[in-house]
Amino acid sequence: MGDVKSENSKDSIFTKLSGSFAEMRNRLSSSAMNLLQKRSEGDDQGQDDELPSYTDRSHLLDSRETFLHYGSMGTGETFNDEFDGIDDDHPLERNSLHGSSPFLPMTPLSIHIDDEDNITSSPAGLPGNGLEIPTINISQDFNFLTVDTRGRHGSGSSGFLSEPWNQGPISPTPTFASSFEFQHQPSKKFSWKRTIKISTLAIIYLLAAALITANNEKKIEFFQVTTQEIKPFQYPVHLPLPELQTYPILSVTVKGSFVPDNLENVTETQLIISVEKQDENNNIIRTVSKKWRLGIVVGENSDTVSESVRTTTFNLADINLDDDSKYALVFRTNSQKVVPFALNIRLLAEGIENGAIYGGAILIGLYILIIFEVINRTLSAMLAAATAIGVLSLFNERPTTEEMVSWLDMDTLILLFSMMVMMAVFCETGFFDYSAYIMYKVTNGQVWPLITGLCIFTALVSAFLDNVTTVLLMTPVTIRICEAMTLNPVPVLISIVIFSNIGGAMTPVGDPPNVIIANNPKVLEAGVDFSVFALHMLLGIIPVIIVAYIQLRIIFRSMKSLQFSEPYEVAELRREIEVWLRAADSLSSYSKDEGHVRTLLLAKIRHLKGKLKTRIRMGGQSEENYKQTLLELELSCKIRDWPLLIKSGIVLTACIIMFFLHSFPQLNLSLGWTALLGAILLLVLADRRELEGIFTRVEWSTLIFFSALFIVMEAVSRLGLLKWIGQQTEEIVLNVNPESRLTVAIVIILWVSGIASAFIDNIPFTTMMIQIVTSLAERINLPLQPLVWALAFGTCLGGNGTLIGASANVVCAGVADQHGYRFTFIQYFKIGFPMMIVSLIVSNVYLLICHTALKLVLAECPAVEKS
């Protein structure tokens, strides 16, 4: 019965359409005749010499024929308004679609049905412009009636919202939009600024590509050697002068049972490597280079230490080798037993020792591209990664593909991918919408109780759950709540990310830098277990949270700062256009169906842009009515799929429990593996025939950004930037009076790690700094725990400084962008960096009071007592 009504409704619409053509023809004919008469009399200045005698062709107006064809009107079928009698060389001037001039009747027509079921039309173009006959497409799967015109001068498509044919009978008064927009798309105008930008980036890329192409991949091939106290191994160094001038850096890589730097006290056996001058009989005259000392385990105990690789360099140019003398790379040991190890020796170009300068330049360039939004930040990271590899290639250090893959933190990437997949399935249940309704109801629609609850809840969850996972869970909920309260989600999202990083500093499992610090063997030897770590950090984080919340209230003291800078309706239309644009960009014309869908999406975008222009002219009207909004949320924000919600809830709960328990050694699952297994299980339970819809919601650009950033940071590390930062920190502390070394060490480590973590990935930085901190504590006899707390505070709180300072920041920005809310580096920096500075000041005061002024000692921790 519904199908019969649907067909009747369609027939009524098309009957009206066919009847309207005759009316429109008569109405436009009279207007066109008047126009032609005026043109023939020369009323329009400047056109007389271009126009022939149009009155001679006016008979064509009456000979115009109209054909209307429609059948069952299934999906993809069309009805056409076709015109005869006018040749394509008709020289009439093309009129503006929105002008007041009369249009010619031979002009192709676009049809418009308003809310009162009245049918009107407007010309889609004039003959002589290469425009094809307009086609009206009715799709069964989309809420659009499209009128398409295409020609040499551009293309136009109008999309009209309507009731879908597959949702029951059509109402006698279908809801069509009341506007049609023809969008002429001219070619981009020449711009010096754009040309300079593209040229500069292209030159950088070409230089990097040339360096990568000109140098072979670094292949480390080891050969086995042995050394002994009574018989050291010698490797002759005989280099021709031209080769020495080109490659004066001797890179030495050894592989064996070497103990970590922080565990050198577990063995007395050392391998000592240096360059020495010899006489004609190969006897050692003197050592001409630094001595590189490595702790190594030999004999039966060698199996207790895993095999590791160590690398150092010797600058032969600084040694001033004599052409008449003999030199050798000598490997000595203090062990009477034979010490086996693998050896690789390579020559590097001069300048690798100044690689920190190149590394710093690469990071500065990356931040310039991101801060000023020269190009997309993912593309910026990819370009920086290619440049970093090119610089390494310049020094004959080009890594292999396998080596670059090993630089990626696969556990983090798998965790992000898996959580994004689970969130994509979870959002189909309607849980986030329902959560927005509950939060709005609990807070009575008040802004600050809502923001306070979100920030505190996020901080508490981040203390025990990885803050990246926390942000992935909280971002969609926050966006839905802000939409319900007509708030700008961007400042609220920035707030919860900042509190997520602060809360993650409380425990050893809350933030990746804390995991690295807490698992260090020397830190464990100092008595820092889970409870001691959490207690010390909690006492410092509580005042940080209080001060950060006060600072947040000061920053957003005006409600206007939490609202859109323009009327909510206008901002919502802009966001909706962004979402539709992203959907259209994800489709191509590879297949007919995709091309058709993309056309419909572009039509919808043009319709929204027309509404946006109208709304901007009219202004916005935003009324705050709590009860009305609550009622609307109650009606619209409901659980849409209870079975899927139950399945998703079970899987997510199980994953979160496993996240809490992942630190137990009995569970051999990392965070990434746990999330991946959960994502696979949820996809199985969801029983989706097609997974493309799920995977399109994955933030691939965010994953690629992280991958490129991992490569950049590892390349910068190999260029020596992180090592240089650590060495400078160590030298500053060593140059201070012994009485003030602890105070200076706390301040320097806190602020260096905080500022550096705002601009450098804090994971490799923490890995490097924890070695410096433990070494510093041993060399100058400082208590280790205060230095550990300073490093933990600095690396965790420093991530709040910039948009790419912490993984959670980037993830939140990516998810928000997917929802149509994009915030820039500068937007985040204006809020995050001042809050980072104040947080570091508060934690600095806390550490100085505890470990310098009051000499706080915990009776439960003997290591602290001893210090």
TrEMBL record:
The chain crosses the membrane at residues 355-372, 407-426, 446-465, 486-510, 530-550, 644-661, 667-686, 698-721, 741-760, 828-849. It is a multi-pass membrane protein. Residues 367-794 form the Citrate transporter-like domain. Residues 32-58, 79-101 are annotated as: Disordered. GO terms for biological process: transmembrane transport. InterPro entries: Cit_transptr-like_dom, Diverse_Ion_Transporter. Keywords: Membrane, Transmembrane, Transmembrane helix, Transport. CDD domains: P_permease (cd01116). The keyword Transport applies. GO terms for cellular component: membrane. This is Citrate transporter-like domain-containing protein. It comes from Allacma fusca.
